[in-house]
Specification:
Structural class: alpha/beta
CATH class of the largest domain: Alpha Beta
CATH architecture of the largest domain: Alpha-Beta Barrel
Helix content: 25-40%
CATH topology of the largest domain: TIM Barrel
Number of domains: 3
Distance between the termini: 65 Å
Bound molecules: magnesium ion
CATH superfamily of the largest domain: Enolase-like C-terminal domain
Number of helices: 15
Mean pLDDT: 90
Low-confidence stretches: 1-39, 208-214
Length: 453
């Protein structure tokens, strides 16, 4: 036996288990049995490639990172989707993380995260964290594949059978929203987010409402999409009243304010919505006004969800530790991937905060699968955003999590359970021109002041 093998065997604990050192067998070293997998370890690995897959099967720019290893056929995929700055993330992965990580041991997930984090010296931010997330989730995928386990097993195993989903219902008027709520409930969804257009203004999350578009180029002196919050604050309680009256008490109702009101308006709106028992009210205020949650929290019993725009611990730790929100809404790839998300989930458990990771269409199926694994293994899971994947997306990402009876269910295949069909992905190039990805920064107050977001 080589000295290296003897050391590995000694440190494996087999010797201490009494087999090799049993008096009847003397003190002679015995080679580890092939039937003792704990003693075998796994063969050494290194990272041989890190690359991006850019694809838009549903018209939304998705960024996926693929990490290849020295073991033939063993690779992992992770979500790095920052759809509004997809090419910046692509550059961060290919030009900076790739050369930093080639040759590294993919088993060292935490060290790769920590060293990548400081590798740019100036750190944080959505571009660098999304790039890191793509690598991070790919490494978890690789490790779970090596263990021949679905990812949720590596994270502690299931504490629930599936993740409750919430469906997005939006409409031009109450009747349209009601129809969509009924549609979702009939298909097994127990949670529905409701958004309605406000006449005359450009409303968040309400399809078909273009708002008061004026001719000419958008700018502070010529706002083309106008938002004013007063009518909205009056209308939303009436929407809740309507849905409760028409659809009943059982369905859980959610709503996203999308930061578009002042603190006093947020207080008024949340207090008025209390009697309709919302599941949560999301992003009542922008992240720049985190301290306002201390005031809002004292004023209302409406459950508060916050955080899809957060990047760093400096933003979410005070809200969680202060028990100022009920649901954390971080976008998993935006905070650096699964390694950071599982720390955030654990932190939240101790403060009675539940997870509601951000997850609409601008999270790739790989990202959904990654956060689903964490949700299945987290005691303090709250809700999963989304209703499944369109057919083109399912074709590119083979093995997407299934949706059944209002739950998202994990694949039992090793890792994320998703194979990315790169040839098919290439047939869905990024759309150019003004699409969903370029909407922000163009909605303004009537006087031309740009709004957040
Ligand atoms: Mg939101």
């Amino acid at each position: 036996m080589q000295r290296r093998d003897v050391l590995r065997w000694l440190s494996s604990g087999v010797g201490a288990g009494g087999v090799a050192f049993a008096p009847s067998r003397g003190l002679a070293f015995q080679p580890p049995s092939a039937a003792a997998p704990a003693a075998r370890g796994l063969p050494p690995l290194r990272i041989t490639d890190v690359k991006t897959v850019l694809t838009a099967p549903n018209g939304i720019r998705l960024v996926v990172v693929k990490v290849t290893t020295s073991e033939p056929g063993l690779y992992g995929v992770g979500c790095a989707t920052f759809t509004q700055r997809a090419y910046a993330v692509d550059t961060a992965v290919e030009k900076y993380l790739r050369p930093f990580l080639l040759g590294r041991n993919p088993d060292e997930i935490e060290d790769i995260w920590q060293s990548s984090y400081v590798s740019s010296y100036w750190r944080n931010g959505p571009v660098l964290f999304n790039a890191m997330s793509g690598v991070d989730e790919a490494l978890w995928d690789i490790k779970a594949k090596r263990a021949s386990m679905p990812l949720y097993q590596l994270l502690g195993g299931k504490v629930r059978k599936g993740a409750d989903l919430y469906y997005h219902a939006s409409g031009r008027d109450f009747a349209e929203v009601e129809d969509q709520v009924r549609w979702a409930v009939e298909r097994g969804f127990r949670h529905v987010r409701i958004q309605v257009a406000v006449e005359g203004v450009s409303t968040y999350g309400a399809g078909g409402a273009a708002g008061a578009a004026a001719a000419g180029e958008d700018g502070p002196t010529n706002p083309t999409r106008v938002w004013e919050p007063s009518a909205y604050v009056r209308l939303v309680p009436r929407l809740f009243e309507h849905i409760r009256a028409k659809v009943g008490e059982e369905v859980e109702l959610l709503h996203d304010v999308h930061e578009r009101v002042t603190l006093p308006q947020a207080v008024q709106l949340c207090k008025e919505l209390e009697k309709y028992r919302p599941f949560f009210i999301e992003d009542p205020l922008p992240p720049e006004e985190n301290e306002h949650f201390r005031i809002l929290r004292q004023q209302t019993s409406a459950p508060l969800a916050m955080g899809e725009l957060f990047n760093t611990q400096h933003e979410y730790v005070p809200l969680v530790a202060g028990r100022l929100v009920d649901f954390i809404r971080c976008h998993v790839s935006q905070i650096g991937g699964l390694s950071m998300a599982r720390k955030v989930a654990a932190l939240c458990e101790f403060f009675g905060v539940r997870t509601a990771w951000h997850g609409p269409g601008d999270t790739s199926p790989v990202g959904h699968a990654s956060q689903l694994a964490l949700e299945l293994a987290s005691y303090n899971f709250g809700i999963h955003e989304g209703a499944g994947f369109p057919p083109e997306t399912r074709d590119v990402f083979r093995g997407c999590p299934e949706v059944k009876d209002g739950y998202m269910l994990a694949s039992e295949a090793p890792g994320h359970g998703i194979e990315v069909d790169e040839k098919l992905a290439a047939k869905f190039p990024y759309p150019e021109g003004p699409t969903f990805d370029y909407n922000w920064g163009r909605t303004r107050r009537r006087d031309g002041t740009v709004i957040r977001p």
